[in-house]
UniProtKB/TrEMBL annotation:
One of its GO terms (molecular function) is DNA binding. InterPro entries: Sig_transdc_resp-reg_C-effctor (IPR016032), TF_LuxR_autoind-bd_dom (IPR005143), TF_LuxR_autoind-bd_dom_sf (IPR036693), Tscrpt_reg_LuxR_C (IPR000792), WH-like_DNA-bd_sf (IPR036388). CDD domains: LuxR_C_like. Keywords: DNA-binding, Transcription, Transcription regulation. SUPFAM superfamilies: C-terminal effector domain of the bipartite response regulators (SSF46894), Pheromone-binding domain of LuxR-like quorum-sensing transcription factors (SSF75516). This is Transcriptional regulator, LuxR family. Pfam families: Autoind_bind, GerE. GO terms for biological process: regulation of DNA-templated transcription. It comes from Aidingimonas halophila. Residues 173-238 form the HTH luxR-type domain.
Length: 240
């Protein structure tokens, strides 16, 4: 613990660790929001990765990355090539995006870097946590302009990771995220704004039957049974 840290981050860390473990659905996003404020980063996202097959995304909790980046990330299967995820296997706890990018710049497609840059993801840091003999690793990635992470920021991030890992590991066991298609994302977006099936069909020039077909696919992919659950789950995963 840094010598110059005040009590507020310590108290906040304890409260959010308890919240994560007791109420993961609410505690994880609340903790990410708290970390964003303490660390003063532009964006923060939590990815849980299944190590086998290589880097398959098991769960995403998006605090304020652009939803379209998350959708593209999943649809393009970027988790298998993302240098920040791949470098987590080599790094010790906290590391910079710059180090990860340099290490994999020759074997990562240019489209990944171009797409990330399009959404303002240029510089940042990440922290990874996994337990020995586990097939699951959790990575928290922060978009920050500075190339330096202050000691207090490092301390709270490092110490929050075990609770975030445990809480996320207990959610949606044995399930991997299945990305929504562009059309499914459009349907869900309008559904989240309260539009009826008929209204969504008029907006997207689709029949009511086709809209219902897309909604059924959305429910299946998100493992939910109704519109309200789909909207809540997609919002939690940063898909809308």
């Amino acid at each position: 613990m840094p010598n110059d840290i005040d009590q507020a981050p310590l108290v906040g860390l304890i409260e959010h660790m308890r919240s994560c473990l007791a109420y993961p659905d609410r505690g994880i996003p609340d903790t990410l929001g708290w970390l964003r404020d303490v660390i003063c980063c532009d964006g923060i996202i939590l990815c849980q990765v299944r190590l086998s097959p290589a880097s398959s995304i098991r769960h995403i909790a998006n605090h304020n990355y652009h939803p379209e980046w998350v959708r593209t990330y999943l649809a393009q299967d970027f988790g298998t090539i993302d240098p920040v995820i791949r470098y987590a296997y080599l790094a010790s706890n906290i590391y910079s995006w710059e180090d990860a990018y340099k290490h994999f710049e020759d074997c990562c497609p240019a489209t990944f870097f171009e797409t990330a840059a399009h959404y303002g993801l240029h510089t940042g840091f990440a922290c990874r946590f996994y337990q020995d003999n586990s097939e699951i690793m959790t990575v928290c990635s922060l978009c920050v302009e500075s190339n330096v992470l202050k000691p207090t920021a490092r301390w709270v991030l490092y110490n929050a990771m075990p609770a975030l890992h445990t809480a996320t590991n207990g959610m949606d066991k044995n399930k991997s995220i299945r990305p929504l298609s562009l059309r499914e994302s459009e349907v869900l977006k309008w559904a989240s704004e309260g539009k009826t099936v008929w209204e969504i069909g008029m907006i997207l020039s689709l029949s009511e039957g086709t809209v219902k077909f897309h909604l059924r696919n959305i429910y299946r992919k998100l493992d939910v049974t109704n519109r309200a659950q789909a909207i809540a789950t997609a919002a939690h995963q940063g898909l809308i």
